[in-house]
Amino acid sequence: MRAKITYFITAAVLVVYFVLVGSRGLMLIQHGTWLTVTFGVAVLILPVIGVWFLWQNTRFVMRANHLATELEAEGGLPVDELERDAYGRILRDSADEVFARRKAETEDAPGDWRSWFRLAVAYHDARDTPRARKAMQRAIALHDKKPVQV
Predict the structure, then answer these.
(1) Whether 125 contacts 82, CB under 8 Å
(2) DSSP structure class, residue 90
(3) Dihedral through CA 113, CA 114, CA 118, CA 119, nearest 10?
(4) pLDDT at residue 104 above 80?
(5) What is the pLDDT of residue 86?
(6) Backbone angles phi, psi at 58, to 5 degrees
(7) End-to-end CA distance of the chain
(8) In a designed cystine with 99, which of 31, 91, 122, 135 is the match (CB 3.0 to 4.6 A)?
(9) What is the pLDDT of residue 13?
(10) Is the pLDDT of residue 150 over 70?
(11) Residue 32 DSSP code
């Protein structure tokens, strides 16, 4: 729940920032000289890229949450069996052990979105965010029956 609140607050702050930057870009364009129009267009590109990026991340999170809900309804969510230190951080050896099992499960069933979802969770637990994201993207593509990029 804390992550959702943080995400929505961050998204709201970004939207306010995009509006402020966009209004400055429009003001520069309205000024009318070739220099201010050029800068105004350049300034407007930043919020457009930011809105696109925010939308893509929001879609990704919503789709991943949909998969988690579906997997939970099936009783297939991975069980948290990781060992933790005194501060609650996941121990690396424990994460590696679970990761090895999840990887083997995915290699046995490469077309199953459920195994890719669980592999994504294992990557995340092992603190490998880029691979966790790629695995989750593959799980989403397999679930939606879209072509999977290798």
Answers:
(1) yes
(2) B
(3) -30
(4) yes
(5) 87
(6) -65, -45
(7) 33
(8) 122
(9) 94
(10) no
(11) -
Cβ partners under 8 Å of residue 117, min gap 6: 67, 68, 71, 135, 136, 139
Kind and range of the H or E run holding 8 = helix 2-31
3-state helix, strand, coil in the chain (%, to 5): 75, 0, 20
Taking alpha carbons only, the member of 147, 138, 79, 69 closest to residue 110 is 138
pLDDT bin (cut points 50, 70, 90) of residue 93 is confident
Q: Which residue has the tokens 């994460």?
A: 95
Token duo for residue 96: 């590696």
> Looking up tokens 């870009």, which residue turns up?
25
pLDDT confidence of residue 149: 67
Cα distances (angstroms) measured from residue 12 to each of 22, 26, 52, 60, 61: 15, 21, 14, 17, 16
pLDDT value, residue 102: 92
Residues 6 or more apart whose CB falls under 8 angstroms from that of 112 comprise 106, 142
Residue indicated by tokens 């966790």 = 132
Specify the residue for token string 């939207």: 15
